[in-house]
Fold this protein.
Amino acid sequence: MKSILYSNKSYGGAEIYVRTLRNDFNIDFYSIKSYNFFKLIHVCFFEKSIVFHDVRAALFKFTRPFKNDKIVIHGPGKNPRLIKVIVILLSFTNCEIIMVSKDLFSKFNGSKKIILLENSSNFDNINLKLNSFDFIYFGRLEPSKGCDILIDFWINKKINKNLHIIGDGSLYNKYKNKTNLNVILHGPLEQSEIKKIIENNCAYYISLSFREGLSLSLLEALSSGLIPIVANIPSQKFISKKYGFKLIEENLSNLEDLINNNLSHVKIKAKCEETKFLYKNNNTNDEFKKYWRKALIQL
């Protein structure tokens, strides 16, 4: 079994997912952006089973409609209606289609081939320092993730708090030489290095992405005990309903207030512990491992 995804970046939902499959289950991956078309066609013809990640990669499934494959849909995409049509067409091939969030799954009720297997964090042993107040974003540095809006907002509003930006993408080169004491671009880092920055500096996770399935970065932030400041979109409403945190409105009218809402040390510590406790009651990580172990056994 192999994975195929579109991107060749290190960060993002699909990118982290395929690396987890490789590290935990020895399922290696191919990137459409890194391999030529003929190489990918060769893989599609001769590989026994493939996990396609998101619709751009899943289009290759039509070259092998009768083989037993998996398709993982990580987000709603730029055109949700078109995505829905393609997913329905893919459901007529021999495959199982995995949705990583309840919000995505709810849009495809009715097909027995579409299942829910929620994303989960594999961060552990994070102990935040009580006197830390920095913000962090880790993920793909792309306009679709709102990274440019976030950095420009921080600079233009002269936010007097540190914002750590971790990841790679098209916006990294644009901002890496911009001088601003409060915006720190680290570039792509290993998970162990990200955890050190979180432990030593951070209290908040922030993201202006308004197009998410169930963000792995957000889940990792929750399991770390970081206070989330994220967009008001269906897949993230549980942040408000379950944890009581306010969400960023689409017009960003409340963003500055959310950033400047300095909680006391005691309240931060209480919120961190509450979030970690609630999140770690979630058993999605066990379900994830059980599913992929079974998938490999059935090959």
In short: The CA atoms of residues 231 and 248 lie 5 Å apart. The two ends are 8 Å apart (CA to CA). The longest strand covers residues 69-73. The chain has two domains: 2-117, 134-280.
